[in-house]
Design a protein that fits this description.
alpha+beta, single chain, 368 residues, D-Maltodextrin-Binding Protein, domain 2, two-stranded parallel ribbon
Length: 368
């Protein structure tokens, strides 16, 4: 109900608000119709056990059954995603991705190359300014912190911090969850190890992280295999350096076979934001925009939270009181995140350049 103030200005403002709402509803109806006419959405690098994406994708399909979701290379890294856009600029077929989900440092890189199409979702104002491009080329979607997922059938003494990973008892045990020359998650793992040594975020922590992994490799503790649920369960990589949400969902999927402990390290607690973007060459641009609207709706954001990710609109959802208590109870204790640091975009980029450029010469382990 409109509040009566007796002024023409208030009535005019109220009418404008109603008009805007109607316009937005019409715009959404038009977008839905255009997306359904395209009939397909092509995603890339979205494993179903990452951040609850399996249920998120299923939710989108249920809401828009007229749109087929074509999923490319679920295990690709952020650099692979950008390469897929570059390689398919002139290709409107099923190998051309419409949308991207990449590490924060890769958003500005893709924008600078002209690979992204700007689009602002209807919930744009509730996304923190620090986590989005002002013109809508990319915008934060969720974040987590680096953790250790440990197969306790094999590892009896749990590592509490990064320095523990160098102990002889962890021989042939420690793996990154990606190739540090291409995977944002793996790059963050190296950066976090450097920060735990006391180095400043950015280039210094990148160098320190490389030195740490060089020591880990020389000690025989580093396993040059991309860690995932399967390798964790088989014992090929009994300790995996993983985003907490991946580690927790992996633990749940294994359901005690084997038992898995997820540990947030005592130092070097690094939070990483991922971002969404639409390819400038998207074969299905309207379906891509509709996907973004779904992801940034309350429903989409809660889908990520169910997958143990902190959605970028978390504070807004909490303020509105729409987060179910059982979701809050399923998250790790807040105390584990008290030391979390969010490296700036410049610090991330500096660390990324060092890590991707010097991994081969410093560590010399071909991760695959």
């Amino acid at each position: 109900m409109l509040k009566r103030t007796g002024t023409a200005l208030s009535v005019t403002a109220a009418l404008l608000m109603v008009s805007t709402a109607i316009s937005s509803a019409q715009d959404m109806a038009e977008l839905e119709a255009a997306a359904k006419a395209e009939g397909m959405l092509t995603t890339i690098a979205l494993p179903h056990d990452w951040c609850g994406y399996g249920d998120v994708i299923a939710g989108f399909k249920a809401k828009y059954p007229e749109i087929t979701v074509n999923e490319l290379n679920p295990d690709a890294g952020s650099a692979d995603e950008l390469e897929a856009v570059r390689a398919n600029k002139d290709n409107k077929g099923p190998q051309a991705p419409d949308v991207l989900d990449v590490g924060l440092a890769f958003g500005p890189q893709a924008q600078a190359e002209g690979l992204l199409m700007p689009y602002k979702v209807s919930t744009w104002d509730s996304i923190p300014d620090s986590a989005k491009d002002a013109d809508g080329h990319w915008y934060g979607d969720y974040y987590g912190v680096l953790s250790f997922a440990v197969n306790t059938d094999i590892v009896q003494n749990l590592p509490a911090d990064w320095s523990d990973l160098l102990k002889p008892e962890y021989a042939n045990s420690v793996a990154l969850a990606g190739d540090p020359r291409a995977s944002n998650q793996a790059i963050f793992g190296v950066h976090a190890a450097g920060l735990a040594s006391g180095a400043a975020a950015g280039e210094a922590a990148g160098e320190a992280g490389l030195n740490f992994f060089s020591e880990l490799n020389k000690a025989g503790n580093f396993v040059p295999t991309i860690g995932k649920s399967g390798t964790l369960a088989q014992g090929a990589t009994p300790i995996v350096i993983w985003w907490d949400y991946n580690a927790l969902s992996g633990r749940d999927a294994l359901n005690g076979n084997p038992p898995v402990e997820v540990i947030v390290p005592a130092s070097g607690v690094v939070a990483g934001v991922y971002v969404q973007a639409i390819s400038a060459y998207a074969p299905h641009p309207n379906a891509a925009k509709l996907w973004m609207e779904y992801l940034y709706s309350d429903e989409g954001q809660l889908g990520w939270l169910k997958g143990y990710c902190h959605p970028i609109r978390f504070n807004d959802l909490a303020a509105k009181g729409v987060i179910p208590q059982e979701m809050m109870d399923a998250l790790p204790p807040a105390a584990a995140y008290e030391k979390a640091v969010f490296p700036t975009l410049e610090e991330q980029d500096a660390a990324k350049q060092v890590i991707t450029g010097k991994w081969d010469s410093t560590v010399g382990a071909n991760v695959q």
